[in-house]
Amino acid sequence: MLKTTYDIPKMDCPSEERIIRMKLENFPEIKQLKFDLENRRLEVIHTADNPEIEKALESLNFGAQKVKSEKISGNEVESDHGQQKKLLLMVLLINFIFFVLEITTGIISKSMGLIADSLDMLADATVYMLSLWAVGASLARKKKVAMLSGYFQLLLAFLGMVEVIRRFFGHGETPNYKIMIIVAFFALLANVLSLYILQKSKSNEAHMKASMIFTSNDIIINTGVIAAGILVMLTRSKYPDLIIGAIIFVLVVQGAFRILKLAK
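and the corresponding C-alpha cells:
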C-alpha cells in the first residue's frame, strides 16, 4: 500500500474537496483520500503507483504538487464512509435551506448581494449533492447531472450580472440593509456550522486532530455581504450592494466552470 502526499494551495473550502473526490473516484487503485483543508494538503492511499492520478489533480488547476510517496501498512486505511455520507447530507441540507432563504429575502429586500450569496450556497449544495449522487449511480448519469447543474448556475449568474448592470446604471432602489445584515449573519453562522461538521467527520484522522475551523471563501463572502449592508446603511447608497453582488456572481461562475469541467 502507498501513501502519496500533495500540497494543493487553492484547496481552501469544502467545494474544492468534493470536486477533487469526484475527479479521483474512477481510479480503482485509490482506497482512501485524506484531506487537510486547513493546511491545503491531500493524502492519497492507493495500492499501486499511477501517474494519471497526479495528472488528474493538475488538470483541476488547484496548484497541486507532489510532496512525497511512501509505503504504509494496510491497516492505516480507515473505513468511515458511512459517517461521512451522513455528515455530507447534513451539510447539503444546510446549504440548500440557506439558498432558499437568501434568494427569497434577497428578492424581498432588493439586495443583489443576498441573491448572489444564495447562488454561492447553491453551488456548494450542488457539489455535495453530486458527491452523494455518485454512490450507486453510473458515471454517465452523474456527469449529466453535473453538466445540467453547471449550466443552471451559469444561467442564474448571467441573469444576476445583467440585473446588477441594469441597477448600476438605472434607478434601482436602495436595498433593505437590515434584512441584508441579519440574513447574511445567519448565513455566516450556517457556513461555520457546515465547516465544523466537515471538520468533525475527519476528527479521527491523525493530520486533522483538534484543529481550528479554517477561514473559507464562503465565510469571507458572508462577511462581505454584511459589510455591504453596513455601508448601505451609512451611505444610503445602492452601490455597495451591487459591487459585492457582482464579485460573488463572478465566484459563482468560476465554480460553475469547475463543475462543467468535471462533466466532460
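(Above: one complete record from the training split.) The first strand starts at residue 2 and ends at 7.
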